[in-house]
Amino acid sequence: MSVQAQLTKGKITLKGSARIVTEFFMYGINSILFQRGIYPVEEFEVKKKYGLDIWVSNDQQVQKYLEKIMNSVEEWLSMGKINKLVLAVNSREARETLERWQFDIQLVDEEVVVAGEQPKPPKSEKALRLEIQAIFRQIAASVSFLPIIEEKCTFNILVYADSDAEVPTTWTDSDPLHIKNAEQVRLRSFSTDAHRVEAMVAYRRDPDLC
Known about the structure:
Belongs to the MAD2 family. The chain is of the alpha+beta class. The chain has a single domain (4-209), classed as Cell Cycle, Spindle Assembly Checkpoint Protein, Chain A, CATH 3.30.900. The chain has helices spanning 14-35, 60-79, 125-141, and strands at 7-8, 11-12, 44-49, 52-57, 82-91, 97-107, 153-161, 183-191, 195-203. It has a 5-stranded antiparallel β-sheet, with helices on one face. The longest helix is centred in the first third of the chain and has 22 residues, at 14-35. The chain is globular and about 55 Å long.
């Protein structure tokens, strides 16, 4: 669904914003999995999105796993019950977290309009697309500063939801998978009329450089 299709009376609704943010997470996670070499190149295919070529996994198990999570994420976003999503890249053998991609989510409060002032105009589709493009370009450029991953890895998705959020029975509580003495790089952010998403990546420092 296009960004334009989510607009209602010029403003993006909370439900429409939830769809946009969820779609960003879906493509963003796929892009990170490709750029960081979590799966072989031949298990990805290029899709056009946000005016960019984005590599997406064609592994049915990976996509099924992500879709199940994103169904709940979209529902919670539309209810304002989620504040963070994390993609953790873990060493398969050592079971250590090597990278932690964190996306903080905030509801955009409606600003109080003083008498005589004009309300804040809705964000344009172009402005939103440019903000999202900037994040994907940073993900692609991350190979220039992140350590090379030489071991086989898996990944986990952590979702931080409110205590009253209805959680699927197949989900379990998880360790936050923090990285001790991690290096952190803050990435760009984007916002709709209803949500703001701020991104950062933490990674394990190369012991040879310490």
